[in-house]
Amino acid sequence: MYIRCWGSRGSLPVSGPEFNKYGGDTTCMEIRSKKGDLIIIDAGSGIRGLGRSLAGKKVKNCNMLFTHAHLDHIMGFPFFNPVFMKGTTITIHGCSFNLPSYREILKGLMEAPYFPVDLDTVPARLTFKNPCAQPFTIGAISIQPIFLSHPNGGLGFRFEEDGSSFVFLTDNELDFPHPGGLSFDDYASFARGADLLIHDAEFSPEDYKHNRSWGHSLFTDAVRLGIKAKAKRLGLFHLNKERTDAQVDAIVKQSKTLIKKHNSSMQCCAVGASFEITV
Prior knowledge:
Radius of gyration: 18 Å
Low-confidence stretches: none
Number of strands: 14
CATH superfamily: Ribonuclease Z/Hydroxyacylglutathione hydrolase-like
CATH topology: Metallo-beta-lactamase, Chain A
Distance between the termini: 5 Å
Number of domains: 1
Order of helices and strands: EEEHEHEHEEEEEHEHHEHEE
Shape: globular
Structural class: alpha/beta
CATH class: Alpha Beta
Strand order of the largest sheet: 6-5-4-3-2-1-14
Strand content: 25-35%
């Protein structure tokens, strides 16, 4: 599997020289199978850059998975070029929980007074599926969803292809049990042996004193999870919108110290807009 990040900020896009290294766009991930199957996770502002890339390559089939419908994870959808390309098919997978369907969610995002083009008039062919916790496949990749501990609910995913595994758990609060969320041990079991685990790491211990129950994790808890799961690599994700590149680097350094203290061989980095890897 080829994995690339197009946006990893939480809550709101940011810009400025202090955010150049990790980028300022909100959540969007690209996954490619060995046979070229395309999977997109979330449509934060980062999907705009991905859309330009796909339009240039004239990609005609996209599979889009939504973790949840908070604004920073859907705001880029109206600016995703393939939506406006005739002959393109976009299959959208998302669990709407107690909210309207994703068709209604995206339609609401693209109607007056918020946007000038109605979802029902776009040239692309859109189809909608509602996997929730049921496993499914896209091409050569098998996908297992898991419920997240997050306000209003959310889905994480484990992707597997030819013995390789990638686990994506953003917007997941490991130290607070939101309705529908699971335990720390459950998430460790889900991520067991992953070649790459990307997990929400928005808060420092100082931040968390004021933001507990907001739906995001301490970076130290993300590290603990990776160690317990015996993941080979940990990517720190959902970077706080106020966190500068230098501050993110400091968190990575602290994370590596903690990993070493626990005699773990797990590799660790912060996931930014230039992050790409093949597992």
